[in-house]
Amino acid sequence: MKRKLALTTLSLLALAVLASCGQKTKESSVAATSAKAEESSAETEKATEKANETKAEGKLAIVATSEDYKKLFDEFTKDTGIETELLSMSSGEVLSKLKAEGGTPTADLWFGGGIDAFMSAKDSDLLEKIDLDAANDFASGYVDPDHYWYTKGVTVVGFIVNDEMLKTKNAEAPKSWDDLLNSAYKDEILMSNPAVSGTNYGVVNALLQKKGEEEGWKYFTALNDNVKYYSKRGGDPREKTAQGEVAIGITPMDKKTEKLATEQGCSLVYPEDGIPYVPEGVAVFKGAANAEAAKQFLNWLYNSEDHLKELAEIDGKNTIKVVLPKLSNVDLSFDTGLLMKEDLSLFGSQRDSILSKWETLAGSKNEA
Amino acid sequence: MKSFFSLKSIEENAGKRVEHSTLFSAVFFSLSIIFLTFPIFLFIVYPIFLLFWKAFQVENPGQLFQEISLRYKTAFFHSMESSFYSALISTGLAFFLSYGIRSTGKWQKRIALLLLSMSMVSPPFISSLSFITLYGRRGLITYRLLGLSFDPYHKWGVILMQSIHFACMNTLFFTNALEDFDGKLYDSGRDLGANAFFVLKDILLPLLSPAILASFFLSFLRGLSDFGTPIIIGGRYSTLATEIYLQIIGFSDFSKAAAMNILLLFPAFFSFLLYRMSMKKADDRNKEQKGKTGLRLDSKHWMNLPIQFLLFFFLLFQALQYASIFLYGFLRFNKKQIFFTWENMGSLFQYNLSTMGLSLLLAFTASVLGSFFAFLLTYFMERKMKRGKKLLDFALSLPYLLPGTCFGLAYILAFNKAPLKLTGTVWIMLFSLLFRQMPLGSRLAGTALSQSPKNLELAARDLGAKPSMVFFQIILPGILPSFFSSVYLQFSQGLTTAGAIIFLISAKYKVLVYTLFDAINRGDYAVASLISGIMILLSLAFSLLLGRVKSLVSRRGVGK
């Protein structure tokens, strides 16, 4: 008796769950009819959007690379009265989260992160098209031709070098990308997996563009011999170099790297034969509850040189000048001639093929 | 009460028992089962099913699986290899550690337990950072002190770190089991002339097998799904869990990640079957235990010396690592020179520390509710359910099988639309914490139950006790130590683990782990260390509080 009852209830439950699963995987129209039968699916979508808006209390939710930007957003709140909430997340995480949310993002604005993630998000139809007032001021390549994403600066790439470690190997610090092939550096170089690190994807793509397909891949095959392993965290190369676990790290050259280098007595090298760089993206999520407020913020930012200068101060670099050459109140601290020539439009389209080729090449460094 | 012992009343009560078992009991039972299993379906089976389903939403699922099993053959093998060794070593280590704790003096025991509860708090990233600072190629201890330069970036580095980490939690299984242990058996073995070693081998080990099995099984699962350790210390050594992480972070390829996770199901299921089978044997053996006499281990045997040494070094190792976390928060580095400073304390307050409140609230709620739920469900499952027991038990273990990021994604997939819209709310965070640690609670409950005297329960029921009375007055007192362990573990895990929750937080609701990550993202390692220190102190405070509650409860004497 007991057993029978328990079994029937269990199987009923299982059925109910299965049924709801089936519903989920079908088109949204089914879900809509079950939610509110009398409304058409489009109307329901609007209704839920509205509901979200009231739930969000009009606060603009931002995903950024760090909470450093809070100052900037506070300024925006002071000027406009629109309140903001900030969350920091890596671009890989943002992309996965967005895809899982299936068109119901929990944030509105995406502020910073390697441009390859933004390109991929656009291709997956996860971004909202927005026309900014300043859209025409952007240098070519630094704004999506269809206006799905914009940029706010570039990340440049170089080396962090632990001189003490190199001394034990009797080796000089590398000055260029070609220097890295020196056999004295065997197992002393750390680089992040380009699939995880937008910066290192930039390195691979830029060097391939510079050297040409064939020579480029030859270079990475040779470099592979010296690389200890490819880390799955973007911050590993600089952290492990600073700790003396390896001698050379290929790393984004930003405030954090500079701080770490001064603290731990490491030196920084901007490669002589060209500095790869990756634009940092900015975009509004598709289906965002506060898309209008997000757009308002971007106009607030890009329409004012003062606000842009403040952004540059937070970032600790003036690379916004590369993005918006018209800017008059910030100057670049380095010669743009040192930057590699990159066709940014290839970044998105080549990603899959480059990464899969790279995976075969680096296979022996990743025992999986 | 006096009629309790008269034959007549037993007969009467026996009659009653049959009466309400036909009606009341049946209703009570099936209601309980619905009440208890429904959340398991909704918050474990359903989200995981949705994620796994992604593997079949591609054009040719067969081809996908074929490609993956070829491509990740090595990673799969590595997963099995490292998890097996870590489970084996951590279980063995935990057994000797708890034996050492049990046989040591009173205040040493207190210190040891305090250090152990501290070691169970493992702030993500910062613990491995301090490990490398102390034991890396230029580690303070290995290089500066001992002049060694050894490279931990390989298989054994992973296994070592996992073993040490898992051992802390596993020790709890054994300390609880030893606490519930029927000392009479040990004493009689000793009285009959067996020395401490043989008693350990012939009496202690076999009777502790539920704890051994549970800790081995859980560690194996945790090893399979642990992606953090291999990423940090594995170097070229990569496991399936790290490759899954790579697929999610680098490619957002859910289908591939899901298929790879399904691959992990096989060893997990196999180990689960082995676990259930051996558990059944162990249960039969333990049926007769009464567990009323405390266990007094022989502290004079030669064997004690190496065990005490092991315990000492293990605790020293942990103490050094945690001291370095605290210390790091008060240091300032400049050009390799180290200064002591209070500065970092100041910059700590520039961070968003309001996350602490929500973190505490979530960890507390999830730990108490989760443990209570896990214990109740496990009791029903083990003692009342006749069929579907294994299936339910496996479902309960599933959350540990998924790498944290996958678990978080599964939740987003499941709860992003009305009527189950939970994304962006506190609830999704609470439920994920609550159910993520379900395997731990249920395993602790299972071990405790297998040691609680079944005969006593049967006797009480024959005497006419209601099911609720049996649970609260007979079962509960026996499993209380394990219950408190479960609450503490869930609390410290809930406070510190990052994997799933990092996907579920929103700009509105953030937790302390997030503040820690933000500090790391800004390159502020000193502040990150201070935040880790806060986490450790909070957990320790909670463990002391629990200790108070525990002694209060046992002094009141529940069930007496």
Give a description of the structure.
The complex is a heterodimer of chains A (368) and B (560). Chain A is α/β, with parallel strands linked by helices and 368 residues long. Chain A folds into two domains: 158 residues, D-Maltodextrin-Binding Protein, domain 2 (3-Layer(aba) Sandwich), CATH 3.40.190.10; 138 residues, D-Maltodextrin-Binding Protein, domain 2 (3-Layer(aba) Sandwich), CATH 3.40.190. The longest helix of chain A has 24 residues. The radius of gyration of chain A is 24 Å and the shape is globular. With 560 residues, chain B is mainly α. Chain B has two domains: 263 residues, MetI-like (MetI-like fold, Orthogonal Bundle), CATH 1.10.3720; 262 residues, MetI-like fold, CATH 1.10.3720.10. Chain B is built from 26 helices and two strands. A two-stranded antiparallel sheet of chain B has the order 1-2. In chain B, strand 1 and strand 2 form a beta hairpin. In chain B, helix 2 packs across helix 19, helix 11 runs antiparallel to helix 21 and helix 25 packs antiparallel against helix 26. The two termini of chain B are 13 Å apart. The N terminus of chain B is likely disordered. Chain A: Keywords: Signal. Chain A: Pfam families: SBP_bac_6. Chain A: InterPro entries: Ferric-bd. Chain A: This is Iron(III) transport system substrate-binding protein. Chain A: One of its GO terms (cellular component) is outer membrane-bounded periplasmic space.
Q: Can you tell me the residue ranges of chain B where pLDDT is under 50 for at least 5 consecutive residues?
A: 1-6
Query: Of all protein chain pairs, which has the greatest interface, and how many residues does each chain bring to it?
Result: A-B, 78 and 83 residues
The level 1 CATH classification of the largest domain in chain A is: Alpha Beta
Written as H for each helix and E for each strand, in order along the chain, the element string of chain B is HHHHHHHHHHHHHHHEEHHHHHHHHHHH
Radius of gyration of chain B: 24 Å
What is the domain total for the residues of chain B?
2
Let me know the number of strands of chain B: 2
Assigned CATH architecture of the largest domain in chain B: Orthogonal Bundle
Q: The CATH topology of the largest domain in chain A, please?
A: D-Maltodextrin-Binding Protein, domain 2
Structural class, from helix and strand content of chain B?
mainly alpha
* CATH H-tier superfamily of the largest domain in chain A: Periplasmic binding protein-like II
- CATH superfamily membership of the largest domain in chain B: MetI-like
Largest β-sheet summary of chain B = 2 strands, antiparallel
The total beta strand count of chain A reads 10
